[in-house]
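Course assignment 3, question 2. Fill in each field.
Student: A.L.
Task: Predict the tertiary structure for the chain below.
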Amino acid sequence: MAGERVNLLGLPRAELEAFVAARLGAKPFRARQLMKWIYRRGAADFAAMTDLAQDFRAQLDGVAKITVPEIVTEQVSNDGTRKWLLRMDEVQGIETVYIPEPDRGTLCISSQVGCAMDCSFCSTAQQGFNRNLGVAEIVGQVWLAHRELAESRPGHGDGRGGDARANITNIVFMGMGEPLANYRNVVPAMRIFLDDLGYDLSRRRVTLSTSGLVPQIYKLAQECNVALAVSLHAPNDELRNELVPINRKHPIDELLAACWHYIDVQNGRSVTFEYVMLDGINDKPEHARQLARLLKGRPAKLNLIPFNAFPGTRYRRSPAAAIVRFRDILNEHGVIATIRRTRGDDIDAACGQLAGRVTDRTLVRLGTKLTPMTRTAAEIQ
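Answer field:
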């Protein structure tokens, strides 16, 4: 709207170029300068952008802003994993997790406040669903994480400046929400992650994880090239219907056909299939053999995830010996399978544990809306 200050965070390059042309009468190179300041240097103040003309900075201040979510709390795990609770508005909160490794740093980001997919073993799904995150709210998680990690680095504040993106090498949509259910905001955010003037990540270092929204997988194949991960969790439709209810709409054969199409169109290496290990539910040798029949000879990798408990869950983690046996059966049948090391479980930051703060929520189970439930704003203070 005319007169409204536009948040530049989250505007892909083409939109930012259009904005500076329409509102400021500026050339496209000004948009490129802005992107470098916002993403490479982590600037949120136009006055700090010293290679922009002073009058241009004054113009910017009148029509634009750089606004990021507010950090409510930060927790640091014994293993170095960091989790931030971010305020989305007066009462809503989402969680973002940073996982450090010797050779990389992975940021796990959220795409929705809550989740409507209702997967029975996931803490986020049990919180219900409130709304989609906007592009700026998605990109803002990365911007904030870069700032917080940079401030904790030795030598920060020594005047040398440097690249604000240095700590994070990988971004994964494995936080709260189903990314493909928020397609219109997730794809522009990923374009910024990939843009060489944005976070300049390779397509193999940006991973979208989905529970299996088949039409959107086909659409994504035509529009954006990133690594694809699929929450499978069961080797047959009967069991997956129970664990991942979207399977009732898009059964396994339909889902796998979409995955192989995505790899063919995007010339990708493989799809990563995520499989949470639930004691006595999906961890038996016959389940491993069924999985092998589904995936053998296909461009697939299987990531076995020890279940991470949360309050009220009826599931238990498979014993370590059962997980190893499951992996070995898959490997013996020619399917690449690895066991994910649990990180951040002491601060409820491990896979499946993110809960955030979801209020005024409506649980949506395959098109059925249940009674909204509310909490007070004090619950995220």
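Instructor remarks: DSSP finds eleven helices and 16 strands in the chain. The longest strand covers residues 93-101.
Grade: pending
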